[in-house]
Every structure is written in structure tokens, then in C-alpha cells.
Amino acid sequence: MPRTLLTLAVLTISALALAACRTGTARGDLSEKVINFDQFPLVWLGPSYDADGDGNPDPVTTARVEVSPAFYHPTTGQLIKPEFHWFSIVYGDCKIPAGATACPVPLQLDLYAPCATSRIPDVPKRGTQKLHGLDAIIEISGNVRLDTADFTVVVSPIGATDAEKTQKALRIAEDLVPANASARQIITGRDFRSRPKDLCKTSQDGNTPVPGSSPTSSCCSLQLDMDPATPGVQSSLSVGGPQDISVDVVLDDNVGSLGAVDFRLYYDDTRLTPVVVAGDSNLDGNPDFNDGELGTAWNCGAGGGPTPDLDPAPGPDHGMAFLSCFTTGGGSTIASATVVATLQLHVAASGTSNITIGYAHFSHYDSTDLITCDAAGGGIVRCAGGSVTAP
């Protein structure tokens, strides 16, 4: 059966560009947009690539860009302020099943400006392997990531298992070549330039980079509501014995536009176990994105989609619920305390079990930071976890 070949579409974070994308453009013209992108170096696999190994080259079908903060070059001291910090390239197409809102594409390359690493989903690594002269990170999800002095690239192919994804991602990463002029100027052979330590320094206001500073804000809070049936946010819950529970992730305050959501919830998966839900790998998984309130113009397929326990190892903090979403439309507006997503777990042991927000990064529709935090209290706000107690 002949494959459906789509033209390259460039998605920006403006409604006009999204509308233009739907009208279609000649593949050659849109490939030129990738080649002529000049905000930071890009690597790719050419205008088409056999992403699924069936012998038929898949064309580039999608690319998406976002805004970046400024930083100083570590060697020259030059102030660099890219207009964009993320360029995502998709090869091939997929057919959305009946009743679903998305489908896994054959191959996605996510490229980031060198100082936009806070935007990269924080996926634990399984190991490393030498590629292009660097230690490529093999993520626990099966994807492969390369951090260079000039960009970061994450290779995310489709695969039946994480091991199959990793095998494909390593093979594909070997084939990466410069895509634009700035990449061709710095990549003259097979090796990429290694990243110096302390490459990026960001100021409090996000505009003038200085050493050792971080943004601060009293904007809002991110909390776990352990008992959604009770009004307000409850940080603890007592149950009568083994049972399923729902835990809401609540963004509290009038924060305005919401354009991206990325968080990890950590727990002891020998005491709390994930509940299997009949959902999908996008908006209706576990954790379950609240598309009923935030709308359906969101993509939650990053990093393999919603996952209630991404870490295969058992024990304290080895339960790791993962969700990473970005808007595909105009974003959502938060005017009061709002449930962003819900995690379903089963209480399997007596005593008190804790759930912490180990990492979170939320941003506005214009890509400016809204919330960054971790379990140690670092970032713009502290994230509040919760606990459940069983006899």
C-alpha cells in the first residue's frame, strides 16, 4: 500500500502560523525554511529519511518553534539572544485511530538552543554511548539525547519496546548532519563540539545573564490535592485499607495564559502502585490531563506520553509519574485554582506513603516561565506534595 506523504509544515506559537500550516505549502519551500533558520544551529536527516526502516523515505511533516532567553557565550562573552529556543522536526505521518486525539509519529527530532535546557523534559537516563565524539544520553524512555556546545538534540523514534526505540534512536542519531548555515560552519566532520561547564548564566529578570543567579517570583503555587472529593486542597488523606485513590495536581492563582506543562511525581511504588486506565498516550492517560477544563488543543505525547511509573526500579522515589504537554492552539487561561492533571494510584500498604513533586516546569503561552520547582525547593516556587495513610 502506498504511504501517505505530507508536506513539511512549520508551526509557530502564533495563531496565524497555525492557520497557515493547515493550508499547506510546497515541500521544497518549507524545507528551505528549515535550512534557512538562523537562530541557532540545527541538525537533521535531510528533507526525507527512512524513519521506520520500510525502505520508503519519510518526508519532514512538522516543525515547531518557541522563544528563548538571552545568554552570554562562554568564550567570546558576546550577548546572544535567539528569537527561538526549540525547533521540533517530525519525519513521516501516522493515522489517528477512531476515538483518539493523537497517534505516535515515526520519528521526531527536538532541537534546543544551548541555554534552553530547562525546556527539555527531565527523563532519567539508562546509560550513555559514544556518538559524534560525545557521550550520548540513553533515556529510560528509549530516546537518545546529545548535549553539544551549540545545541541539544533529542532523537525520539517509535518502537514497540524501549529497547527497540533505543536501538533505532542510536542508529538514527549516527546519521544526523548539519541542516542550516550556522551548523555547517561549526560541524566540519562527524564530531560535534562538547559543551563547556557553566555554559549558560541567566539573570533574575531573564534578560541580562550573570553568574549564579536564578529567577524569583511570588506568582502562584503548585500543590497535590490528595482528596479531590473534599472542597479545597487537602495535603493528606486517610483511607480504610487498600483502595484506588485520585491525586489532583492543582495550579493555584490567577496566572493568566498556560502554554506548557511538565512535571514528575515521585512515590514508593512498593506501597503505592499505578492504576491501569483505559486511556491513550495523549490526553487521556495516567496522569490524565484535564482537557475538560483546559481544552483539547494540547499535545501530551512528549517522552512517550503520560506514564504513571517511568522508572522500572522498585522502592522509595522509584515510582515516577510523568506528564509533559504543550498547547497546539491558543493555550489556556487560568483565572483561579485549576486542576491540571489527575494521577490514579492504588494504596497497597499500611502506614503513611508520601508523594512529592520532584520536578515541575510550567510556562505561559509566550514561553516565559510560570513555575519551575523541584523537591528541594529550588526554582521560582516551592511545590507542595502530599501523603496518604492506611491502617
Please report the number of helical segments: 5
Task: Tell me the strand percentage band.
Answer: 35-45%
Number of domains: 2
- End-to-end separation: 59 Å
> Quick check: average pLDDT?
76
Low-confidence stretches: 1-27, 67-75, 201-218, 375-379
Shape: globular
Salient structural properties:
5 helices, Immunoglobulin-like, 391 residues, 36% strand, disordered N terminus, 2 domains, seven-stranded mixed β-sheet
Describe the structure.
The protein is mainly beta. It folds into 2 domains: 10-186, no CATH class; 221-390, Immunoglobulin-like. The protein has 5 helices and 28 strands. The chain has helices spanning 15-23, 27-36, 162-174, 181-186, 291-294; strands at residues 10-11, 43-44, 48-49, 58-66, 71-72, 79-80, 86-91, 107-112, 125-131, 134-139, 144-147, 152-157, 177-178, 221-225, 236-238, 243-252, 256-258, 260-267, 272-274, 288-289, 298-299, 319-327, 332-334, 338-347, 351-363, 369-374, 383-384, 386-390. Strands 1, 3, 4, 7, 8, 9, 10, 11 and 12 form a 9-stranded mixed β-sheet that branches. Strands 15, 18, 21, 22, 25, 26 and 28 form a 7-stranded mixed β-sheet that branches. Strands 14, 16, 19, 20, 24 and 27 form a 6-stranded mixed β-sheet that branches. Residues 1-27, 67-75, 201-218 and 375-379 have low confidence and may be disordered.
Would you kindly provide a brief summary of this structure?
By secondary structure, this protein is mostly beta strands. The chain has five helices and 28 strands.
Task: Give the helices and strands, then pairings.
Layout: E1 10-11, H1 15-23, H2 27-36, E2 43-44, E3 48-49, E4 58-66, E5 71-72, E6 79-80, E7 86-91, E8 107-112, E9 125-131, E10 134-139, E11 144-147, E12 152-157, H3 162-174, E13 177-178, H4 181-186, E14 221-225, E15 236-238, E16 243-252, E17 256-258, E18 260-267, E19 272-274, E20 288-289, H5 291-294, E21 298-299, E22 319-327, E23 332-334, E24 338-347, E25 351-363, E26 369-374, E27 383-384, E28 386-390
Parallel strand pairs: 1-4, 14-27, 15-28
Antiparallel strand pairs: 2-13, 3-4, 4-7, 5-6, 7-8, 8-12, 9-10, 10-11, 11-12, 14-16, 16-24, 17-23, 18-22, 18-25, 19-24, 20-24, 21-22, 25-26, 25-28
